[in-house]
Amino acid sequence: MATTTELTKVIVITETHFEQDLLNAFRELGIKGFTCMNCWGQGHHQVYDEPFIGHSQTRIEIITTEAIAESIVDYCRQPRFESYAISAYLESVRVRDPNKFIA
């Protein structure tokens, strides 16, 4: 069986207009890469539709170290985001080549 390394996946779900600003901030925190996908849903905040882009939210997934993942969650919990739909949570993942995910 191949050896694996435990890393942390951070998932951020937010309004689409925050996507680029968040990705820029996450790069400054030290991420190497990310995956974004369009999504929609309902939770604490009201669901709304973006008439020009067809989706109201984006899901950002990043596999990184636990320290960087915690920094991302802390960033998303800033008071300036309190009135917006943004959530961030962590999952433990195992990868075979950690160098693909961390700098």
From TrEMBL:
It comes from the Bacteria. Pfam families: P-II. One of its GO terms (molecular function) is enzyme regulator activity. GO terms for biological process: regulation of nitrogen utilization. Transmembrane segments: none annotated. This is Uncharacterized protein.
